[in-house]
Design a protein that fits this description.
Length: 98
Amino acid sequence: MSLCLCLRHQVKFGGGLRSYTRRYARWYHGEHAGEELCAHALSAYHEWEAAISSWQTPILNSSYVRLFYCLLYMSARLPVSQRFVAHLSLTVSQHMNG
């Protein structure tokens, strides 16, 4: 089941003295702006998910990214006094290996 939630396009602050129009209101305005935005989102989200997936997949499948996050996780578990040493040894080994 797909669900779409659209907030009011006009938001008021300071007891109603100031208002802010949300960014999407440039394209969807009027009394039925929320319904129009939700209808568009529900009809197009499959395309958006596919585009995002094709954009992210090469990055997420990269061994360098997995290595980076693994090292980041391990270094976060080290005491602060040892983090610089771990970073320094990684930097030196990267330069030596190419």
